[in-house]
Specification:
Layout lengths: L1 E4 L2 E4 L4 E4 L13 E2 L1 H8 L3 H8 L9 E3 L2 E5 H11 L11
Antiparallel strand pairs: 1-2, 2-3, 4-6, 5-6
Helix pairs in contact: 1-2, 1-3
Length: about 100
């Protein structure tokens, strides 16, 4: 069964993304993607703090944007969190 969402078709039988014409990234399982909500969960912080993290120069670039906002590879976010968190005190640098 295929469900369409924001230019992305999700194959519910195999749990892989089938990019529609408006999306420029390749097939990827949904659990390998992270919206801001998942970024917050991976980092153990609020969505507001996660949004600030995504503005840092050293945060991974998003791979695309859906109706829910920007999306990242979960693996990239996990690697960033492992090498960067916990942050030292003070304000983070911005992009």
């Amino acid at each position: 069964m295929m469900l369409g969402l924001c230019g992305v078709e999700v194959n519910t039988d195999s749990d892989t993304f089938q990019p529609g014409p408006a999306v420029g990234f390749t097939r990827m399982a949904p659990e390998k993607l992270a919206s801001l909500k998942e970024v917050a969960e991976v980092c153990g912080v609020s969505k507001r703090t996660a949004a600030r993290y995504t503005e840092r120069d050293d945060f991974p670039d998003p791979i695309g944007e859906l109706g829910v906002g920007r999306i990242w590879r979960r693996r990239d976010v996990e690697r960033w969190a492992a090498r960067t968190l916990p942050l030292t005190t003070g304000r983070p640098p911005t992009k």
